[in-house]
Design brief:
This protein is an alpha/beta fold. It has two domains: 131 residues, Periplasmic binding protein-like II (D-Maltodextrin-Binding Protein, domain 2, 3-Layer(aba) Sandwich); 118 residues, 3-Layer(aba) Sandwich (D-Maltodextrin-Binding Protein, domain 2). 35% of the residues lie in helices and 20% in strands. The chain has a six-stranded mixed sheet. Strand 7, helix 4 and strand 8 form a beta-alpha-beta unit. The longest helix has 18 residues. It is globular, with a radius of gyration of 18 Å. The N and C termini lie far apart (43 Å).
């Protein structure tokens, strides 16, 4: 049996439940009886998940997708509903701080501690590294006194800022919007001091060995989700407008931003 997973955005119990409803609907509509993995029960990392040969419908960050030689098949891309995404299949990273720390802008955090999830995360590493490039000078090649991580997942990064271990961190803006919907008290102490340029939202993918017919059925189900009245409440809970076809060409921007940082001598965040 193949698998489906929204581990990338399962940051709370209510999010996990909503993603399960969505993926189970896709399985039923497509006729592909995949197993929806429970992120709270299976301990594997995202890297291990994305290496599996049985993915039929799994969220994957576009940066590691672009880095792969054996790229998984693109099924569809999500269009987040919040107005700041402009009705496009994009996302951003938000630099978050504790509001009571007095940071008025991103430069106020320089010299402090920045946290990150993993080096292979666009939202947590590649995007903030690219965003920070203009602030670096010959006299100040490093912007932060210390870097803590990898925390692997993004919710622990948020918690590191909340409990004072880090002064700032860049987190997935769509994920942060979901936390505001599902756990508003958790993120209430946070403030956003900067936001990165948009990038293609993490797509849903299938392993290279998944057959064409299966992929087409799953994609068709995803593209029809917004037309199903029974899924309206679930899409609302997940702040999703719809899914659209995913264009492989747009994911090259991740490699362009990576190359720009490396060429500038900023291969590692800090």
């Amino acid at each position: 049996m193949t698998i489906a997973s929204a581990r990338m955005y399962s940051w709370s119990p209510s999010m996990r439940a909503a993603w399960r409803r969505l993926l189970e609907w896709v399985a039923e509509r497509s006729g592909v009886p995949f197993e929806v993995l429970d992120p709270s029960a299976e301990p594997m990392s995202l890297d291990d998940l994305w290496a599996r040969p049985d993915m039929a419908c799994v969220f994957m960050c576009g940066y590691p997708w672009a880095l792969r030689g054996d790229r998984p098949y693109l099924l569809a891309a999500p269009v987040p509903a919040p107005p700041r995404f402009g009705g496009r299949p994009d996302y951003v990273s938000d630099f978050v701080v504790r509001a009571d720390r007095g940071f008025r802008g991103l430069p106020d955090t320089f010299g402090g501690t920045i946290a990150y999830s993993t080096e292979h995360s666009h939202s947590g590493y590649n995007a903030p590294r690219f965003h920070l490039l203009p602030y670096r000078t010959a006299e100040r090649p490093r912007l932060y006194a210390s870097v803590i991580g990898p925390f692997i997942r993004q919710r622990p990064v948020v918690e590191a800022v909340l409990d004072g271990r880090a002064d700032v961190a860049a987190v997935d803006g769509y994920g942060l919007d979901l936390l505001r919907r599902h756990e508003p008290a958790l993120v209430a102490p946070l403030a956003v001091v900067a936001t990165t340029a948009p990038a293609p939202a993490p797509p849903l993918v299938a392993s290279p060995g998944i057959d064409t017919g299966t992929r087409r059925r799953v994609t068709a189900a995803l593209l029809s989700l917004h037309e199903a009245p029974a899924m309206a409440a679930t899409l609302d809970a997940l702040l999703l407008a719809r899914f659209v076809p995913a264009d492989p060409a747009v994911f090259e921007v991740f490699l362009e931003r990576d190359r720009a940082a490396v060429a500038a001598g900023y291969a590692t965040l800090g």
